[in-house]
Amino acid sequence: MKFEDLLLEIGGFGRFQILILFILCLPRINLPMHFLLHNFLAATPAHHCAIPHQEAFANLTMEEVLLISIPREPDGTFRSCEMFSQPQFHLLLNSSLQPENNSIIQHCQHGWVYDHSQFTSTISTQWDLVCEQRGLNQATATFFFIGVTMGAVVFGYLSDRFGRKAMLLLSLVCSLVFGMLSAASVSYSMLVITRTLTGVALSGVSLIVLPLGMEWVDIQHRTFSGILTSIFWSIGNMLLAMVAYLVREWHWLLVAVTGPCLLSVVCLWWVPESARWLIANGKVKQAHRHLLRCARMNGRKDFAVSSEVQLHCRPVVVQISYISAKGSYSYISLFRTPVLRKISLCSGAVWFGVAFSYYGMSMNLTGFGLNMYLSQFVFGVIEIPAKMIMYVLVNRVGRRQSQAWALILTGLCIGANVIIPKPLTSLRSVVAIMGKGFSEAAFTTVFLYTSELYPTVLRQNGMGYTSFVARLGGALAPLVFLLDGVWRSLPEVTYCGVAVCCGSVAFLLPETLNLRLPEGVEDIE
């Protein structure tokens, strides 16, 4: 007997499942507030070299002091990373005569002065992560995603070994602790270490929340549950814009986005362990208890007769125990058999492309002509209709076609903005918002799709592996912005090419629409 048949007996989508999904959506809100926090945590405001002995120019205005001290760009703005070795007083007579002798221009010698009109402080202003140190600023996001990458491997294995709920609780507690330690950082090194550990912990939340909810839901409501859970990611996106707008000091911003983890820890008390996982691991009595609770909450009193439950449970246990008896499973098991090997390689490529393009767009808030807070909010808003449309498409067109075309169209939108002239800010903004919608559609689909591709005995290992590959994409995405020194449009061309290529790989995956969740490797092969 399949577990889905058991779900039909106890109610595959009733009050019990709705309660679980709602509670699991709380930590889901918190995820984007950390994953996209780099946009505000490490924002670099306008800055210029600090000018020594400025009191000697008391009879000059600030604009005139800058004019004789800081060289200008061709567009008339003052350079951020260079200054004159000696004041150029002749520029007061004719400011258009910029010196052609580069020998009198040098890098900033006395630090920087920042515009604090938008941010009270960021890690860029705290530790001068600008100019030659700009790479360290971008690396902050990379270190965070390296932590998320490591966490995907660790929690993917641990949640299959020790259960979904216990590992979710551990990851939430660690997220709270390391998040608060990040806020208390007194050096760049301390921030990098604590943000990396926060990434490890949050990876467990990201990895476990969706499968734990999905394993309690029947086939008919599986897509709806996946989309519903992902909508709360978009809500977190919008909340991040509002929180960042209200809290302009980076220490308190970290406290504000980490605090909600405490609420999630408390609410997790009411979430049961996955009965599917308990049965697969031979813990029949615990599964029996949770199934009875589910049946009672869903009004299926006829199921509450103990003898009937045991009769129903026993065939399921025998079936899965037989599968499990063949040997323990690990990440290597994902590549042992032909069909699983193909699924793992292709889904890994798709996850890399989805994450790489998504974070590439999400971390370029100032590149489309909108205020960064408004961009963050609009990017969050557009994700909700994108999810609604995908809810229809994945059930009508299928998972495979939806996944492939959503990612390909993301790449094409990014590529279009390379061609569209920068003065056309309105058109660039519209194309960027469309691209963000397609990107979120691809991300929404890949979570649902992957959880259906792998069997129960390997599902968390599969999700851990694909999350690992995705976080590699997320870790590389912010570093790609540094390629603008080679060619200004090279980052966008890179995002476009990767998205289109990885989207095409999705056509090689099998369709899972209206199919039962596979229990063992035999169901896949």
TrEMBL record:
Residue ranges of every copy of the Major facilitator superfamily (MFS) profile domain listed in the record: 87-513
Keyword Chloroplast: no
Transmembrane feature ranges: 139-159, 166-186, 192-212, 224-246, 252-271, 343-361, 373-393
Record's keyword terms, sorted: Cell membrane, Ion transport, Membrane, Transmembrane, Transmembrane helix, Transport
Entry's Gene Ontology molecular function annotations: organic anion transmembrane transporter activity; prostaglandin transmembrane transporter activity
A GO CC term assigned to this protein in UniProt: basolateral plasma membrane
Catalytic reactions on record: GDP(in) = GDP(out); 3',5'-cyclic AMP(in) = 3',5'-cyclic AMP(out); 2-oxoglutarate(in) = 2-oxoglutarate(out); prostaglandin E2(out) = prostaglandin E2(in)
One Pfam family linked to the record: Sugar_tr
PANTHER family according to UniProt: SOLUTE CARRIER FAMILY 22 MEMBER
Name recorded for this polypeptide: Solute carrier family 22 member 7
Native organism: Gavia stellata
